[in-house]
Design a protein that fits this description.
Length: 531
RNA sequence: GCCGCGUUCGUCUAGUGGCCUAGGACGCUAGGUUCUCAUCCUAGAAAUCACGGGUUCGACUCCCGUACGCGGUACCA
């Protein structure tokens, strides 16, 4: 059996779209699962929609997400990773290389190839030259609409332009296109990997333009030609391509090539069930990264939009490797899936709890750096201008993160609800300190007891565990009621309020641990002096 | 309009003719743990399986039709 070869074929019209990511992901997963090759090619035949920098952006996004490719288009700086492969510089994109023996992997770089194939089709009687002008075509379509008949090219040039006239016009450099001649009265049938048997009546298929008057091929020609050149065995793409599949199948037949298998994926939808669009929220993967979503979460979430591991599996958090291990087309859903942010948020919070503290720190750093309170706090460190201060600041942030991670949904929220960790002084009303309207005297006593306990914990033993142990012991000692219950709030609430100045926060043990002995005692002291 | 594809709790989905008085997850509600918040745990509400006909001893599952949604209908991909 042939090796599985799949490809992701984006057009460089902007950023990586989440729909595109889902397609690329399934490509990647299927290639990994089967031990096949994953190829990246670029479909840049539409010059009107081309966006500068889009190719580079696409590559970087895929790299960032960890969807590694075996072949095709790469950034130049990874050239050294391919030892025994054929590598060429891209003709049209500086800084980009093409790796593999079946290139070019960029459509704009093989224009002559498509032209040659289109002309061969004409020679074989499966395509013809068309000199119709856009205006006539449009009028014709309007008429067909009005007559309620299917909008198809009327084959004017096939019927009325003689071979002699064709030659003459060609010599005169008239603008022309080449159209595919669709046979009449035939049923094109194929087995889609997600939809099963799909049928089309060729009488309703248009004589598609294969070669445009600007010399560029259309998607239909280019796609078929280079999927064949690249020995692609499985075409995984969005459902929007399903209707043009018969044209592609015909092309494979006319060229005498074996057609690959198709898998048409269900669409990603807006909340109103229309095709996912910018209008109703973010569609670029980059936007989600900027909002503080982890790549693991985005991949995890997107993988489950249209696919599931089946068999009563209740676990939903999977790594890329685990997904690759389980992926199959049998469990790809047929219906479109709504992109539900709530679930993404949950998956993201799960991943925030799962990655290492080191990872959490380095990935959240850029978000910290945007916050005013962080900037001010770090500036205070920097004025001290000592080498070890930077390390100290990093350690402090890591402690904050350790305490904060279980309540974080997105990286962008980092520190937001715990600004007291970074404040020079707290602003709060004295009333906040009091637990259930406790009298002043009792409050003073409560804070004094906390302070005393903490004084007695040596700096070296300043851990969350020790703080909790000692403070809890004090609760039992001082605040046990007659019926044996322990009124922990009497000690813990004033302490926590003094430490944070907030109604809600992490526990006093955690806060004191992060703050350190000195700062904790200072804050308790300040609270005591409040009027 | 024409062609194609689809349709199970609000959302993602399990389900491949009897295990389904339809299961899980998110979200929601209630309770528990708890000094507060979050986490965590437990419970609950939530789908007449789009609708109507068949086929079958038996259908969410197969067939036909209808409705609705979406996609395509370009010298865009």
């Amino acid at each position: 059996m042939n090796k599985v070869r799949v490809r992701f074929a984006p057009s460089p019209t902007g950023f990586l779209h989440v729909g595109g990511l889902r397609t690329a992901l399934y490509d990647y997963l299927y290639a990994r699962k089967t031990g096949g090759d994953f190829v990246l090619k670029i479909e840049d035949t539409d010059r009107k929609r081309f966006v500068e920098g889009a190719v580079e952006n696409l590559i970087k996004s895929l790299d960032f997400l960890g969807l590694e490719r075996d072949e095709g288009v790469f950034m130049k700086d990874v050239a050294s990773e391919f030892e025994n492969e054929k590598i060429v510089d891209s003709k049209n994109y500086p800084g980009i290389i093409e790796v593999g023996e079946y290139g070019p992997y960029i459509q704009s770089e093989k224009l002559e190839v498509y032209k040659k194939y289109a002309e061969q089709l004409v020679k074989d009687g499966h395509a013809y030259y068309c000199f119709c002008e856009p205006e006539r075509l449009e009028e014709m379509r309007k008429e067909q609409q009005a007559r309620k008949s299917p909008p198809l090219y009327d084959q004017y040039c096939l019927r009325n332009v003689t071979p002699e006239e064709v030659n003459k016009k060609l010599k005169e450099n008239c603008l022309y296109t080449i159209r595919l001649k669709i046979p009449k009265d035939e049923t094109i049938e194929f087995e889609d990997m997600v939809r099963g048997k799909v049928k089309f009546d060729t009488n309703l298929v248009d004589d598609q333009v294969l070669l445009k008057s600007d010399g560029f091929p259309t998607y239909h020609l280019a796609n078929v030609v280079d999927d064949h050149d690249m020995k692609i065995t499985y075409i995984i793409r969005g459902e929007e391509w399903l209707s043009s599949a018969p044209k592609h199948l015909l092309l494979y037949r006319y060229f005498g090539w074996e057609a690959p298998r198709f898998a048409h994926l269900p669409l990603l939808l807006n909340t109103d069930r229309s095709k996912l669009s910018k209008r109703q929220g973010d569609v670029a993967v980059e936007d989600y990264i900027k909002k503080g979503y982890l790549k693991e979460a985005i991949i995890n979430f997107v993988a489950f939009l249209g696919w599931n591991p089946g068999g009563g599996e209740t676990q939903e958090i999977f790594t890329l490797e685990e997904l690759a291990d389980r992926f199959d087309f049998a469990h790809v859903h047929k219906g479109g899936a709504v992109f539900d942010l709530k679930k993404l948020d949950w998956i993201n919070s799960q991943w925030i709890k799962r990655i290492s503290l080191e990872e959490l720190y380095s990935r959240s750093l850029e978000f910290w750096k945007e916050k005013e309170f962080y900037k001010e706090w770090i500036a205070r460190y920097e004025t001290r201008n000592m080498k070890h201060e930077a390390q100290e600041a990093e350690n402090y942030i890591k402690k904050v993160l350790e305490v904060e991670r279980e309540r974080l949904q997105k990286l962008s929220e980092v520190g937001e609800s715990n600004r007291f960790f970074f404040a020079e002084k707290l602003n709060y009303d004295k009333k906040l300190l009091s637990w259930k309207d406790m009298p002043d005297e009792e409050l003073r006593q409560s804070l004094a007891r906390s302070a005393e306990i903490m004084e007695n914990i040596p700096k070296g033993d300043w851990t969350r565990e020790n703080l909790e142990k000692e403070l809890m012991a004090a609760c039992e000692k001082y605040y046990k009621t007659q019926d044996g219950k322990i009124n922990r709030g009497s000690l813990l609430w004033p302490l926590r309020a003094a430490l944070t100045g907030e109604q809600k926060s992490p526990s006093p043990f955690e806060v004191a641990w992060v703050l350190g002995k000195e700062e904790s005692l200072k804050r308790i002291n300040k609270a005591t002096e409040l009027k």
